[in-house]
Amino acid sequence: MARPLNIDAAALDRAYVLHPFTNLEDHARTGGPMMVKGSGITLTDASGKTYLDAMAGLWCVNVGYGRAEIADAIREQAVTLPYYHGFSSMSTDTPAILAERIVKAAPEGMARVFFGSSGSDANDTQVKLVWYYNAARGKPGKRKIIARNRGYHGVTLAAASLTGLEGLHKGFGIPLDFARHVRAPHRLWEAEPGMSEADFVARLAGELEDLILAEGAETVGAFIAEPIQGAGGVIVPPKGYFPAIQEVLRRHDVLLIVDEVICGFGRLGTMFGSEVYGIEPDLMTIAKGVTSAYVPLSGCVVSQRVYDVIAGAGRTHGPFGHGYTYTAHPIAAAAALANLDIIENENLIGAAAERGAQMRAALADAFGDHPLVGEVRGEGLVAAVELVAKREPATRFDPSLKVAPRVIKAALKRGLISRALPSSDTLAFSPPFVVTSAEIAEIVGRAREALDEVTNELSTEGAL
Ligand code: PMP
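^ thats the input. predicted complex w/ 4'-deoxy-4'-aminopyridoxal-5'-phosphate below
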């Protein structure tokens, strides 16, 4: 399709678009980079400047930009049948083929997929699945859902209530009253100095159980967790965390929702993050990597145990009264199938494991003994460098210094896209699985230069 020539899209963007997570007044004045093209892990903006995308968009373009195979699958589906819905027993073929593929790849016991369009809407669906399931079992009081501080589950009302980041609650009067939060499994800040990993796990599991007991187990329906907390800081759980948590949940008849939106489809070097940490989900949320973001698609993967209750409830409660116009969209499913073919044919999960080990080693090498780095951590092809004012004892920067955002800005100047994560000064790295060794070296090198620039500035400002 020919785009109209001589249009200043950047001016239109500043004038007409209301951007997410953006300082709107600043943006209306100055705008930001406008990306017009992508190939592999490289983006090009409207001025012709290129960037290495060390974030795969928002942790999602896992097979990289410019994959013609996915474009072809989208086109073919669009000309054959662009849309039909899944309400009232109607169906289309690509979502059915995809659902089988997802269930077969998922952890044991998973049985069905309910499709949506975003991680947020899928997590809202999870909440309703939990409520419906418990109502059907004659336990309608089990409505509270426990999430974790620094967890990210999306921005729709239920999902945002589960998200454990203050910035997403402020100004909206949320969390809604069904949500509770427990401590993040972030050893750097949440364990006492010298506390062993095992003691930290015991503390976390104990606090979860105390909360369930305080609220009353008859009021608690589910616990939701990402295998690795992504947007909240790339927080890697301590060893034994999930088995200990699961024991508590089972004891109190509380379902486990595993939010695999970032980890799913290879990011940790395995098909799902659950495999890495011994997690046995009752419900699993997927999005992002299922299509590598070429088309929006999400899903709730439901275990046989939960499905049986929900299906049986039709007799007493009427049909499961929930669904979106775009539930099981055939074009999204076709894109997902092409994306999963690429991941399989090119062994990109193996590549994520291999390149991930390389990237984490290179980051540890470049940043490990930097005086302003408190921790380099990660798993598979996702990593974080957490910046601190002082290493011993670990001390945060004054948030008003905006250290991580400044590093991100300095990196952007050098043609590198990373992200500053909220709650502390953390830089994230989550490139497409097709990243090469040379690109990893370039990403790490530019990130180090950016940190050095900001370190010098802070030193000149007398902030160190
Ligand atoms: N869950 C997790 C773990 C996520 O990382 C995200 C998005 N970053 C979401 C849910 C929400 O997904 P979406 O932005 O597609 O609504």
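Residues 269 and 350 are 6 Å apart (CA to CA).
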